[in-house]
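REQUEST
  id: r-88c1
  op: predict_structure
  target: Cd(2+)-exporting ATPase
  payload:
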Amino acid sequence: MEKITLNLEGLGCANCAAKIESRAKNISGIDNVVLDFSRSKLTFENKDSNVDLTIDEIKNIVKSLEPDVVVSLRSEGKPEQKNITNAAMHSHQTMARGIGHNQKNLIRLIISLVLFTVGILGKNMPYVEFVALAMAYILSGHKVLYKSFRNILRGDIFDENFLMSIATFGAIAIGEYPEAVAVMIFYEIGEYFQDLAVNRSKHAISSLLDIRPDEASVLRGNFWMNVSPEEVQIDEIIMVKPGERVPLDGIIVEGGSNLDTSALTGESIPEYFALGDAVLSGSVVVNGIIKLKVTSVYAESTVARILALVENATSNKAPTENFITKFARYYTPIVVFFAIGLVVIPSFIFGFDTFDTWLYRGLIFLVISCPCALVVSVPLGFFSGIGNASKNGILIKGSNYLEALSHVDTIVFDKTGTLTEGAFEVYQTHLPDEQVDNNTLIKLATLAEYHSNHPVAKSIIQFSNHQVNLDDIIALEEVSGKGVIVKSKMGLIIAGNKSLMHDQSIIIPEILSPYTHIYIALDGKYIGAFDIRDKVKKDAHETIKRLKTLGYRVLMLTGDRKEAAHAVATSLDIDTVYSELLPEDKYEKVISLIHDGANVAFVGDGINDAPVLASANIGISMGAIGSDAAIEASDVVLMTDEPSKIPQAIQISKITKKIVTQNIVFALGTKLLIMALGTVGLSSMWMAIFADVGVTLIAVLNSTRVLRYKPKPL
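RESPONSE
  id: r-88c1
  status: 200
  body:
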């Protein structure tokens, strides 16, 4: 199915956004309709409909609810440079129009407040009071009245504009002129500040994800040309200057610089990259000019993959979000009918001479019945959490996964490439007696392994500080899967595993350690051995310690040998470890844990981890060295190889869930309290206005706290 994305420029009403999404879902021939209010975009999958007709139908829905919103198709093709320039100019023009619109609204509201003040002060002069209040009401509320009239004609009765209109008409009918004007003015003031807060929040979230360069400086012929990153091909040379963002993945072929990779990895300290180093797109050059040979086209680059993950994140809504969306559909009608009942029933019971009293109390319910505080703040809170996580090098594919992460109680780790580097290192040496010193053992091993490309051989060379004289090597034979036999000026050196030693009839001792052993013999006599282990990541121990301190159950599943697996588990203080597992065995272990009631997060990196990553409650993959299959199957992607990102991701998920819950409790609690007080005559329309727009504003500002939250480092 084809996925279509529409921009909804100027969408500022969250309640209207929910209605647009609801109505668009009823269009035949399309599926998976999602409106992301935080980013003002609507996506849907086209099954068997005419795309142009479907877009026209969506435009009509948007126009009926929000006439000022401009709907446009988001291009997924390769934009030419002039299109990028035009887009930038259009963005500036839109921003300028927005600023001008806000200024006009502010002036209108200030004049309304002045007229309202004049009306209040002129209460002893009926003519002045009436004219001033009437002008204030019309000036502040004409848009609300127009929208409510238009919506009535379209059958959309339960709309906040209609509710405000009815509430103020009712206040006028019972002679509460100042309160009628006050409700309209302060409703509009609240909407004004709410729009400001929401737009600033949207901008703050978008700026976290603003890692896409608009241009790439590419060498073609003998000239440097500025083109769109999409136009650059593999193996072309690009140049990036200080302060610029790297547009495509590549390898440095000239120059060197410190690079700020914070937008990708969350690492705040710039790192120096030199000739031959691989550089990820989205990094910022701090100093020096670098030239790169491009290694991937833009669509497959790091920055494109990150943006695609974040763009699609809002398609997966959290259960709390879905609940609020459904709740909002029923909340307003229920409150409205309750308001009608509050006016009619007591008037019959206590007599119609009390009608004005009960009408006033019913009007309070109408003012308070709009669910904007919930509809705005909940999705904004979740997307702020996703934005914060991406800033810290953690890509979460949806608010449902962000919320699910806060419920995890069991974390299962793969070993190789997850808790370990996936690279070998020498752990220690073994000497049979004092006749051979450690220095001689290392020198012989270095001479034997010098020409080998095997990872174990490279770990020994890295461990050694000996210089090799190539003239000392006379002949070399590599025995596949076993080791090497080297004829040298020091004698015949044999370096390899137990099998090679047995083939050469060399007697070796039994070494009781869980690591891989490389034995060294000289002229047919065993002289020592090396313990080779998979290098444990530097932050792995602190990560496990932090998780266990926080109360999480930690396990390790690996396909590695039992001895090696238990050695790593012991060094990291992991109590439960399962070794020598096939991919299907890992899958069955995780499924078993879930069936036993555990909320499981599985952390892995390899292609063989893809099934278990997909089956866990939350799958977390290593993004830097992880395979594409693992990243695709996982729900959370760590842009570095650091397991320490996991406690950070959990912290972000918990603070997001906490703030979203605060907003729900605060909004509903305040509204219910004002309703209860209004029922017994202890609240006024002023309080109802606060419970509507005031609570919304506070909830939006509270949601933005997620953006400023900094997870505690290990």
